[in-house]
Design goal:
Two copies of one chain form a homodimer.
Chain A lengths: L15 H25 L2 H8 L3 H8 L2 H29 L5 H13 L8 H13 L5 H7 L1 H14 L5 H21 L9 H17 L4
Helix pairs in contact in A: 1-2, 1-4, 1-6, 2-3, 4-5, 5-9, 5-10, 6-9, 8-9, 9-10
Chain A binds a DNA duplex through helix 1 and helix 3.
DNA sequence: GTCTATAATGAGATAGAC
DNA sequence: GTCTATCTCATTATAGAC
């Protein structure tokens, strides 16, 4: 029985070839999970897309559930850090208003998720699946709740007196509308312009928050 | 080979038992497709949930794809009619403003989709899957595009001078935020109140449209 | 209309050679 | 680290008895 990959008990650094394979596997899994869902994408198809055997997918990714979470986790930390850094940036410039909060939420994801067939488009679609499916609530709480809590907290500071449930609800609406850009851009028209959609999204959400100001 | 069920070439009316089985199959399919997605729900599980054999699921539902569309279609016509009727009602009362349009979109679905584990909750979740997955674009255009076109048209009348792409984008945001209530209520808090969420949703979307008024 | 049985395929996981 | 081969199980779909 082969041992599981674990940083704690690995003696040698992984080879460049191994790392490349691991990356291709995660990229392929990201794409296929996002397009076909957890059950619709098979490990065999992922292996084919990554140009690797099915056994190697299991070797690097573990079980299918583990691979799925690895894919979600890979960009979650980066995305979260980008968003929180933007909040800090606006704060230090003394410009942390509602518009800045919307910007800090929307832009780090969507500015990367406009390239058609790019990895961040697939990732965004994957996040859309995860955040609307209670089966993945463990992944959601682990990777997205801390950022959500921070945004809701900042909203509360800018909108004193508004109940936290209200802020949480409207935050979820912003999340949902944001994720509709990568998942439902095709519903906005034949040749819908992503940049235009992002602009409209920010205006839509900002109005939805300003509505709470006294 | 058994013939396909088709109103055109059926000589006898279906028995009450048959209709009951058919209804249970559609209900079970609606629930399992909405919870686990198209690929995550098996015809066997649907049969078990409907307390019929797997073969009977195929007999009434046809292929898996056909069953899926049957489930979506069953309530789509009703939902669409309810929405368009509400628009007419407001128009005849001389009250067809932006708030009325939001109400006419949101209420027919969500007022029915609050009962936990009720059929409309499952249906709403199913619609959320369908409208964010380009694999089902044929179903979307057939069952949802006409209503969408009507809403966008009415928005255009109330917001003269606003580009259609902008209206379509914001309509999609409203759709997405609306579907987040059944799919992501769990993200709004442990004991989130659906009525409260619906109230916030309407305010959020209304503000997002009013923002376009000059 | 409803069932049992089964064909044909593909799934996830793992053993073991190199 | 990577592969081939295989185990075991679940899947969709269909044939055919009643």
């Amino acid at each position: 029985m082969s041992r599981k990959i674990d940083d704690k008990d690995r003696l040698r650094a992984p080879s460049a070839k191994s790392l490349a394979a691991q990356g291709r596997i995660l990229d392929a899994a990201e794409k296929l999970f996002s397009l076909y869902g957890f059950d619709g994408a098979s490990l065999r198809d992922i292996g084919k897309a990554a140009e690797v055997s099915a056994a190697l997918v299991a070797h690097h990714g573990g079980t299918k559930d583990e691979l799925f979470e690895k894919v979600v986790a890979r960009r979650a930390a980066e995305l979260s850090a980008l968003r929180l850094a933007l909040i800090e940036e606006y704060r230090q410039a003394g410009q942390l208003d509602l518009a800045a909060l919307v910007e800090a939420y929307v832009t780090p994801l969507l500015s990367r998720a406009v390239t058609p067939d790019g990895p961040w488009v697939h990732y965004a679609r994957l996040v859309a699946h995860v955040s609307t499916d209670e089966r993945w609530s463990a992944i959601t709480s682990k990777w997205f709740d801390p950022t959500a809590a921070r945004f809701v907290e900042e909203l509360g500071l800018l909108l004193p007196g508004v109940a936290p449930e209200v802020l949480r609800a409207r935050y979820v609406f912003m999340v949902s509308a944001t994720l509709s850009v990568p998942t439902a851009l095709w519903r906005m028209g034949e040749n819908a312009d992503p940049a235009r959609a992002i602009q409209e999204l920010k205006a839509f959400c900002l109005a939805g928050f300003k509505d709470l100001a006294v």
